[in-house]
Each structure stands twice: as C-alpha cells, then as structure tokens.
Amino acid sequence: MPYAASALRLGFAAALLAGACTLAHAQTTAVAAPTPPTTVAPPDFRAQFKDSIVKLPDPSDLTIRGTIYVPTYSRVYGATAGDRKLQFSTTLRIDNTSATKPLVIERIEYYETSGELVQSYLTEPLALRPFGTIEIVIPAEDERGGPAANFIVNWAGSGPIAEPMVEAVMIGSQDNTSFSFVSPGRTVRTVGRSAWPQFRFRF
Hints:
The protein is α+β, with helices and mostly antiparallel strands. The chain has two domains: 30 residues; 143 residues, Immunoglobulin-like. It contains two helices and 13 strands, in the order ααβββββββββββββ. Strands 1, 2, 6, 7, 8, 10 and 13 form a seven-stranded antiparallel sheet that branches. Strands 9-5-11-12 form a four-stranded antiparallel sheet. A two-stranded antiparallel sheet has the order 3-4. The radius of gyration is 30 Å and the shape is globular. About 6% of the residues have low confidence.
C-alpha cells in the first residue's frame, strides 16, 4: 500500500511537470511567431493643400483631357566607378496655370523602374482652383520606385484652358553638399500614322 501511494504521488508530479512544460512551450511559440507586416498608407496630401481644392465641375463641361509623364530619380550614380550613389527625395508638383478655370486631376500614379504600379494617389478626381497647386512627396528612404521611377498624371478641363504645369524636384546631399534638379513633365502624344487605311471623301 505505501508503494502504491508513492507511485501515485510520483505520477501526479510527473503529470504536473508535463503540463507546465506544455504551457511554457505554447507561450514560447506564441511569442516567437512573426507578426504580419503592416502596410502604411501614404499621407493624404489633400489635407495639406485643401485650400487649393474646389468643388468638381459638371463632368459634361470637361471637353479636353491630357496625360503628362514625369520621369523621377531616386538615386543618381557618380561619374566614375568608385563614386557613391546619391539618394534623392522627390516632390511632384502639379499647378493649375489657368487664371479663370478649375483644373480636374483624374489620375496620379507612381510607377517603378520596370513599369509596375507602386502607388495610386487618387480614388476619385479632384479639382484645383485657378492658380492652385498640390504636391506629393516621396522620401529618399522610400526605394519602391527603384532608380528610374515615374509619375503619370491625367487631367481634364473645360476648353479652351491653359495646360497645367507638372514637374518633379529631386533633392539629396552628400559630404555636406546638397544637390537638386528639376525634371519637367512631358505631354504624352501619339505619333506616327495609323496602320488602318485613311479614307477621305470629297463632295
């Protein structure tokens, strides 16, 4: 009988020890489990430039549209092989150059070097008041665009209207020296003749 009681006590102690080990292992596994990455949305530039934004005009009044391509540079290499690369922040600026009419911005998209979309900055169109301006900033540490990124901006207006000004400003520094340059936007135009035959009729 004493032997049975002793064996019972030993079995109970072993069960307690096994339970404690299992609990400790579960807690360790839970702590060691990696947390899923979080996606941080870019700051809403519209809040900073709310005074430049006005009510959208009637869509039926938008009789002219255009697309502007803006090349940007997140880094630039030195002239020789041993030179270090310079990291740059990028500021995209969009100006309504009309003195009397609102400018509607329908699309602002940021593309990386190989042409993949990195960020879309509009979920719906916005209108800039006459001479109004907005800016979007890509910090130097944001390398998603690669060395040769670009912006595409689609705009619309009630023609005739002055074309908007769209450009990017790159700023960087190295060894107590600052560097900056401007990359102007280019209007996207289709060139060359159509492959389809052209027919002209005279009456």
